[in-house]
Amino acid sequence: MVEASIVFRSLMVAILGLFAVVFAIVYLHDRKQRMAGWLALAYLSGLAAFLVDISRSALDPIQSDIAAKTLFWCFSLAFSLALFDRFKTLYPTVKLGVIIGTGAGALWWFSFGDPDIIMRSTFSSITAGLLISTTLPTLWKRRSGLLDTILLGLIAILSAIYFLRPYLIYSVLDAAHTIGTYQNSAYAMLLHGSSAIAALACGVTLLIVLGHDIILKYQRETTIDPLTGLMNRRGLDQFITKELNKKGVDDCAVMIVDLDDFKQVNDLFGHETGDHVLKRAASILQRVTGNLGKVARIGGEEFVILLDELSSEDRLVVAQHLRLSVGMIVHPEIGPEDRVTASFGVALIFKGESFAMALRRADSALYEAKSDGRNCVVEASNDNSFTKIRYIERY
Q1: Which of 3, 108, 142, 150 is such that its CA lies 20 to 30 A from the CA of 227?
Q2: What are phi and psi for residue 304, nearest 5 degrees?
Q3: Is residue 327 classed as helix, strand or coil in its secondary structure?
Q4: Contact status, residue 260 vs residue 340, Cβ threshold 8 Å
Q5: The pTM is what?
Q6: 3-class DSSP state of 64
Q7: 3-state secondary structure of 153
Q8: Sheet containing strand 293-299, strands side by side
Q9: 24-38 pLDDT, tens per residue?
C-alpha cells in the first residue's frame, strides 16, 4: 500500500511537472500564445499545491492546508484565464474576484474563526468549481468543431467533479477526517485520484487544442496578407481550389483592381503613407463587395475580386460602385483634395474555363483600362475584345 502510494504520488508529480514544462516551452517560443503561458502557470500551481498537500505532516497543519487550497485556486484561476484567452474574450474580473473573495473569507473563517477541516475542504472544492465554471458560457457560445465540443464537455465534467466531490465524500460515503488522519482519508484519496485523472485528461486535450490552434495560425499567416488582412495570392489559390472542388466557379466573374499612380504616392509621401492608402482601399473593397464575393491582395497595389454569380449588368454596377468608392476615400496624409483612384479589369468565367484563363483576360482588360486614361472599368469578352464601361463620374 505504501509503495503504491509512493508510485501514485511520483506519477502525479511527473504529470503536473511535465505539462507545466511543455506549456512553458510553447509560451517561451511564442509569447503571443498567452493560453500556453496561463496553462504553464496553472500546472505549476497545481504541482505546488500537490507537493504542499502531501507534505502536511512536516509543516504547520493549518498553514499548509491554507497554502494548498490557495495554490489549488491559483490552478483553477489560471486554467480559466487560459480558456478565456483561447477564445479571445475579456476576463470576467468582477465575477472571478467575488468568487475568490467569498472563498477566501470562508477559508479564513473555517481556519481561525470556527475551525472546521470538513467545511474548509467543502468550500475549497466549490470555489475551484465556480472558477472553472465561469468559462462554460464562453465555451458554449464560441465552440466550433469537434475539439471545442470535447473541451466543453471536459470542462463541464471537471466543474461537476469539484462541486460533487464534497457531497459524495461527506454525505454519501459519510466519511470524515481530521488534520491527523487527512493523508489516509477517503477525501485525500479521491482528491488526489480525481485530480490526477483530470490533470492528465485536460493536459492532453489542451495540448491537442493548442497544437491545432498553432497550425491554424501558421496556415493563416501563409494565406493572409499581414498589411490588409485580405487573402494573399496563396490564400486565393487555395480558395479557388476549394471552390472548384465544391461547386465550381462557372458564371462567376473575376476583377483585377489596380490603384492608379500608386508609385507616386510612395515616392512623394513615403511607404508608410502608401501602407495607409492600401489599407483604406482594401477596407473599402472588402466592405462594398460584402457577401457578393471574395477579395484578395495579390501584390503591391493590385487586388483580385472573385464575384459570385451575378448578371452582366449587376457585376458591372458592382464594379462601378467599387471604383467610385475607392475614388472617394480621403487620405489625410496626401491632402484632402488629392484622391487615389483605381482601374478595373473584369472578366466573366465562362463554363469550362479555368480561373487562370479568366484572370488573364481580366488582366488584359486592366491593361486596356490603364492605357485608356485610368480610373475606369473595362470588361473582357471571351473573344478577347474589350468593352469600356461608361463613366459615372471621374475623380
Answers
A1: 142
A2: -125, 135
A3: helix
A4: yes
A5: 0.71
A6: helix
A7: helix
A8: 293-299, 302-307, 253-259, 342-348, 377-380, 386-388
A9: 999 999 888 899 999
